[in-house]
Amino acid sequence: MTMFFGVVSGLLVALLLYTITVYNGLVRLKTALSNSFAQIDVQMKRRYDLIPNLVETAKAYMKHERETLEAVIAARNQGLAAMRMLSQNPADAAQIGKLAQAESQLRGGLQSLSVVMESYPDLKANTTMLQMMEELTSTENKISFARQAFNDAVMEYNTARQVFPSNIVAGLFNFTAAQSFEIENPREREAVAVKF
Amino acid sequence: MIRADGSRKATVRQTADQTRVFATNFFAQQAQARRNTWRILLLFWIAMVATIALTFLLLVVYSGYKAGQRWVHPWEIIACLLFTLWMVVFGYLRRREMLNQGGKSVATSLEGRLVERKTEHADERRLLNVVDEMALAARIPSPPVYLLDQENSINAFAAGYHQFDAVIGITRGAVRRLNRDELQGLVAHEFSHIFNGDMRLNMQMVCWIGGLDAISTLGYMMIQGRRSSSSGKNDGGSHLIIGLAMIVVGSFGRFLGSLLRATLSREREHLADASALQYTRNPYGIGGALWKIWKLKDKGLNAPFAHEMSHFFLSSARGQPPRSFFGSKFLETHPSLETRLQRICPELLRTGAAPPGIKPDFFERVDLPVEERPDERIDILKPQTAKLAGAVSLLQQATDQVSSFGTNLERSHHTGTHLLQLARREAALAKSLALALANIRPTSATSKDDELRAQLEAWLATVEQPEFERLQLLNLSLPALRENREDERRHWLSELEKLEIHDSTPDGRFNMLLVAYTIFALHPDRRTPLRAPATADLMLATHQILSFASQVGHESATERAKAYAAGWMLMKRNLPSLSAKPLARLRIADLVLAFRVLKATPPLTLTELHQSLDRVMEFDRRVTGREAAMVQALRTAAGAPDWPG
């Protein structure tokens, strides 16, 4: 009889330990998830900070392209403002819409800027400009890599949540499914192809 | 032209179909590699246990033979088992001692040079950016990057046993010959080794294999011992036989272990290739890099340690393995380049195929030595108009941000730091920022460029900065300034120390204070002396500080004298009266000296100085922003709170 109780309590302890391990694993994955999301935010902000420098550099050479440059800056400012509002209230749908609009304007502006720059050989050879373009390209890449890492983290978490037997623990402690970062318009998925 | 041109995206667009195939493929490849890892590790442990068991049996037989018994006592069996285990574990620990040095020592032993975070070199800048990008994709902290300047071939390594002490090393050849995509692939491959803990795994195996050495060594010792003590007894033969048997068992175990280690290493390479695909989502990244190595048939690395460290590298550090030598294929730590390309990017194996964006003269330029490209170095001592424009815009931006946040110090500190992180890259930028903030016209150090001065002055004319915010921004720029190279910082400091401001208006005095503040904050010698300063020094310092304070706050000479006297009254209890008048002639250097004295004074002694500063400030019952900023600057310098940054 004592033998029986020993076995049963041993099994219970093992089960408890297993549950704790799975629970901790899920929590770790979930934390990784929110970390990855924060990275996207950080990189987008960084881009907003870079653009004015870029435009200022270009301004010194492109005397006749005021409109293009101003459009870029305007879009950037709009995006930044929307982002600030969003950081106060992340669920604000109107601001999300504004951010998306500013983002697409910015993308268009940067593209036309790169087209215009073709006719300024001095600017293209300017080392500062090259360096800034490198920074901008890198930031664009970082945004897309941060999104990708976030989606990979979502996939990892969702898989861990669904497979047996950890799905029992997930159900028990209410680990809800995570949503991956998708942009509706597939063209927007691509970072700006800044080409000089 | 820069290759940092979004060609990565262009590539992805061209090969959208293939990418889709890989998107499902690389996870499967990773899973496969992980399964294989377990199998190989199981085999490895079976081999280890079998070798240990065989040694144990040998020892049991030997001790039984020596005792002349047909069966052995249980205690002897246990003793033999313990002895064998002790032998192997001892060998393991000894090896570990030798290998456990962390990633940094590996990098330096390969003659790697740390790439500084604020490098101005275009290639190095790009490399650091790529490493940061891949760190994001792999979700690990960005490791320090070492550049192997002497290596002309394309290769890279990751070293370190933990994500947080890992380093990544890249040959100069790789930085120069790979485009941005390929560099990404290469770095992603190494990050996979870090992420999956391959270095730790490999070290464990190397150490256990080293542990088996102890068995062979004991065998040698037995044979040696027989020779030296050949006293004619008839157990000499048994010594020889057992010794030989142990050498054979030990060596066989070692061979088997090495074989399995190599197999596992190859499997982990495939895993890393598949992970590189996951991180970059671009088969032509790692594929292109491997293709270039394959086509170049590199001769191998030059560094003396490269052979021992071959398992760290992207491709075999010994270059292409010789085909004729039997067994070499099985002991290679890396799969052949063809096999790897077959799995990642098979279309590159076709004859005439080439990764996108390869320059037509790529193969002709291969033999050229890797030379410095001086034109790509951005000389920070020659500020350019464009850079200045950037600085001005940054200043504008910083001003906007700070003023919009008002006096909410914590928040403005946060945004300011963020902005300055951008500025940190360019020492010149931070310099002009600090200069402009202190309202100092650039002096001989930077005034070579007239345009610089003109623009800065134009900017200063339009922006009338309240003193308090000026001080705040100066505080924010201090960390960036401190990060400058030692010699640059010294040069700049000496320029600042040479400055003379003859303006005796309150604003001029405030500017002097800011300059002294900057010098004090940046001076390399900021050690706190062991002894508190002498009373005479403290008195002089107080005298200086109060003189400044009364002159910053008040316009007319009589008011200044009165304010000074009021402040001095409070100090009188501790200090003998020196003079009831504020100093007429003030020098920046004296103020810096006073700051040093105050910094070394015990805080309790300074309570009265703080009170008398308040008295000087409030003397005319009107506290201006300038006065408030001054008092804060003086208190910070006196060591009340810590220095910002």
Would you give an account of this structure?
The complex is a heterodimer of chains A (196) and B (645). With 196 residues, chain A is mainly alpha-helical. Chain A has a single domain (15-189), classed as LemA-like domain (de novo design (two linked rop proteins)). Chain A has helices at 2-61, 66-88, 93-117, 121-125, 127-162, 166-172, 186-189. The relative contact order of chain A is 0.14. With 645 residues, chain B is mostly helical. Among the domains of chain B are: 15-100 and 200-274 and 323-342, no CATH class; 385-499, no CATH class; 535-637. Chain B is built from 24 helices and 4 strands. A 4-stranded mixed beta sheet of chain B has the order 1-2-4-3. The model of chain B is unreliable at 1-23, 319-327, 368-392, 398-433, 436-449, 458-465 and 641-645 (pLDDT under 50). Chain A binds chain B through residues 32, 35-36, 39, 43, 45-46, 49-50, 52-53, 55-57, 59-61, 124, 126-135, 137-138, 140-142, 145-146, 148-149, 152-153, 190-196, and chain B through 1-2, 4-6, 8-10, 13, 122, 125-126, 129-130, 132-134, 136-139, 180, 278-279, 281, 375-376, 378, 384-387, 389-390, 392-394, 397, 418-419, 422, 425.
Which features would summarize this protein structure in a list?
heterodimer; A: about 200 residues; mainly alpha; de novo design (two linked rop proteins); B: mainly alpha; about 65% helix; elongated; disordered N terminus
Q: What is the strand and helix layout of this fold?
A:
The complex is a heterodimer of chains A (196) and B (645).
Chain A: H1 2-61, H2 66-88, H3 93-117, H4 121-125, H5 127-162, H6 166-172, H7 186-189
Helix pairs in contact in A: 1-2, 1-5, 2-3
Chain B: H1 7-14, H2 16-67, H3 74-99, H4 102-109, E1 113-114, H5 122-138, E2 145-148, E3 156-159, E4 167-171, H6 172-177, H7 180-195, H8 198-228, H9 236-280, H10 283-296, H11 328-331, H12 337-344, H13 385-405, H14 409-423, H15 427-437, H16 450-462, H17 467-482, H18 486-498, H19 506-522, H20 535-553, H21 557-571, H22 588-600, H23 607-618, H24 625-637
Helix pairs in contact in B: 2-3, 2-8, 2-9, 3-8, 5-7, 7-9, 7-10, 8-9, 10-12, 13-14, 13-15, 13-16, 14-17, 15-17, 17-19, 17-24, 18-19, 19-20, 19-22, 19-24, 20-21, 20-22, 20-23, 20-24, 21-23, 23-24
